[in-house]
Amino acid sequence: AKLLVIHGPNLNLLGTREPKHYGSTTLEAINARLEQQALQAGHCLTCFQANGEHVLIERVQSTVHEDIHFIIINPAAFTHTSIALRDALAAVAIPFIEVHLSNIHGREAFRRHSYFSDIAEGVISGLGPMGYELALQAALARLLPP
Ligand code: DQA
């Protein structure tokens, strides 16, 4: 199967960005592990990061021309603001898991609300980079066999 991982704004800075919340692992390292784990399981995973809301929306929309079976997304700050990105995911109707590196329920009050969680297959928050790997395992379990 084909899986798409989408990272929202400022996640390109992982490694140096607020390590107390986000750890020291780079986005490249997270993506490399996910690609390798998917490949080992006989699937194909690609990763995409953008800082712009419309760029993320266009990436989601363009999945209609591909055969993407599952999306893992960390909408980053757009989690708390973007009805438009939520609508894009609802429009393409591809199942997705929402991932956050930090525990969004243990920080500022404005991070507690997500525009994505109620339409996600599931949500993982606060487990760092491992959250993406757990999301991949859950996605593959739903998609098996390759
Ligand atoms: C985040 C949490 C968001 O509140 C924040 O804006 C981010 C990253 C996380 O992965 O913990 O940019 O989605």
Automatic annotation (TrEMBL):
GO BP, sorted A to Z: amino acid biosynthetic process; aromatic amino acid family biosynthetic process; chorismate biosynthetic process; quinate catabolic process
Pathway per the UniProt entry: Metabolic intermediate biosynthesis; chorismate biosynthesis; chorismate from D-erythrose 4-phosphate and phosphoenolpyruvate: step 3/7
Keywords per UniProt: Amino-acid biosynthesis, Aromatic amino acid biosynthesis, Lyase
Coiled coil ranges: none
Chain residues that bind substrate: N74, H80, D87, L101, S102, R111
Molecular functions (GO terms): 3-dehydroquinate dehydratase activity
Catalytic residues, chain numbering: Y22, H100
Catalytic activity: 3-dehydroquinate = 3-dehydroshikimate + H2O
Role this protein plays: Catalyzes a trans-dehydration via an enolate intermediate.
Complexes and interactors: Homododecamer.
Protein name in the entry: 3-dehydroquinate dehydratase
Lineage, broadest ranks: Bacteria, Pseudomonadati, Pseudomonadota, Gammaproteobacteria, Chromatiales
